[in-house]
Amino acid sequence: xxxxxxxxxxxxxxxxxxxxxxxxxxxxxxxxxxxxxxxxxxxxxxxxxxxxxxxxxxxxxxxxxxxxxxxxxxxxxxxxxxxxxxxxxxxxxxxxxxxxxxxxxxxxxxxxxxxxxxxxxxxxxxxxxxxxxxxxxxxxxxxxxxxxxxxxxxxxxxxxxxxxxxxxxxxxxxxxxxxxxxxx
Length: 184
Ligand code: SF4
Ligand code: SF4
Hints:
Layout: H1 18-22, H2 24-38, E1 62-64, H3 79-83, E2 89-95, E3 108-116, H4 125-129, E4 135-137, E5 152-153, H5 155-158, H6 174-183
């Protein structure tokens, strides 16, 4: 049969020698390899206590941004959900009431906004699709968890704290910044 890679090895039915049958040389060889790696510099780190540095535009956990005055930017238009190839985003819209102008930037807002992080592939398409600069991915790594339900991130985990803003300036393209300026 024609080989595609030239890496195939034919199976041999040759009888094992006495040394091969007692397996000792193979066991000693295996132990030697283990010993060799024991003294080598470790490739692994003690995550989560230690973290590797990531790029400024690494695509990690999402953040729902507030505007300069602290109001939520998301207008629940659904474009991020439509753009999401993993169908990870769901939302429920609500109408802003009188007196809520400080809370929500637009007349329509997301009362519920959820991302299923088990589905998310961190592609960043939601970020690109958002016309309101409301959703961004951050450099924050997703923490591990035991329960599936804990991977459904709602607004409590996604909206940025008003007194602890998340800097996303490194991942904003010039066009996006220009739009933001014109949008004010
Ligand atoms: S990063 Fe990609 S997969 Fe994850 S929620 Fe956004 S669009 Fe969906
Ligand atoms: S995050 Fe952006 S794209 Fe998604 S619903 Fe809100 S405003 Fe629309």
